[in-house]
Amino acid sequence: MKTKKIHVGTAAFGCRVHRSLTAKLARIAIQGAALFVLLLIAGSLAPAQDMPMFRWENFTSVNGLPDNHVYCVLVDGSRIWAGTDNGLGLFENGSWKSFRPDPDNKEHSLAHQAVLSLALDKNTGDVWAGTMGGLSRISAGRIDSYTQLNSGLSNDIVYGVGVQGDYVWTATAAGASRLNTHTGQWSLYNAFNTPMYEIWTYAVSPAEDKVYYAVWGGGVLEFDQKTERWKDYNDPDGETEMVVMKDQGLIHEITTSVSYVNKILWIATYFGASRYDGRYWHNFLKKDSGLPSNFLSQVKAVGTNRAWFSTDKGLAYFEGEHWAVYRPSLDTHKPEMYLTDADGNSKKVVAVQTAPSHNYILGVDLQGDDIWVATAHGLSHGIRLKNSATVAKVLRSGKK
Q1: Which one of 36, 44, 215, 232 has the minimum C-beta count within 10 Å?
Q2: d(CA 142, CA 62)
Q3: How far from the centroid of its chain's Cα atoms is residue 331's Cα?
Q4: C-alpha–C-alpha distance, residues 33 and 43, integer Å
Q5: 68-80, pLDDT tens digit by residue?
Q6: Taking the chain, what is the end-to-end CA distance rounded to the nearest angstrom?
Q7: pLDDT at 213 > cutoff 50
Q8: Residue 45 in this model has a pLDDT that exceeds 90
């Protein structure tokens, strides 16, 4: 006996559609919709899958670090320099060596035991250390120290140091200094020859075209290498801690760090961060970004839209569309990593076994894919994990 076909409707083009064909089309539609959703998920995950994950190794005085309070860190090829509260540490071939002042040989030993800043001269291999008592150069095992008494250094408290070509730029408690290493000539910059109305310079970022200074309480200063003219950038809201005009200028006058990369200026303050491309400003606050805190000690730019932020509540990384935060949990002190979108929403927790040694981050430097982190209690080495499947899995599951 022949099976009777039942007509159940008419297709858009006038063709008869039977029940068996209708079911088949429904299955195809469902499969297509599912595929579309998967493609959307994959598209949204693609940027976040590049967020770095690390296995953290931590160093303290127990391991040979000169002191647990680490102000700064510098990558020098396979060697790592750490500026601490009680000496300069050098990590090489798996062990630590410490440098401290020698009272019997002051000019040829570290200027002061508290090392606040470090910079590498990539042309000579010299390492420059800004300390609480002067500026020191470590060159092929020899140390030469510069102070107000034996050089043109503006002040013995050197918060920041940077090298560009033949010039060494310093940020001191009494203005800026520039040393021409070829001629030995010093140049001083302060309220008399710059727009600097506060002389407490906190950090410096020199490049071929511009030199930028973070001035604590005085915003940012820009030095044009070609014209040798200065320009200042200030908070349009004044010194108020309230943000009245967002993205209209520098986020705050109390600046702590500057990082100039690819003609993009990144700025850290005690009240948030700013990014300036020469035309437009973009500000970052905890309430509207992935920053874990508005209190920043350093910003380290690594690209046009990528930067690392050292805060008092963890290390943050921004890659233009997502944020990642690495720290010991503020509550349990267990290792913690989480991701958010650009606005700080859609928080996703990533299960991790290790974390930086402390949540108060003072500075970072990069060694290839790895990162070294100076904290208030130890130095941390983040060894990047190549497999990002865990991050994708967490994002896909929607864990919070």
Answers
A1: 36
A2: 27
A3: 24
A4: 15
A5: 999 999 999 999 9
A6: 60
A7: yes
A8: no
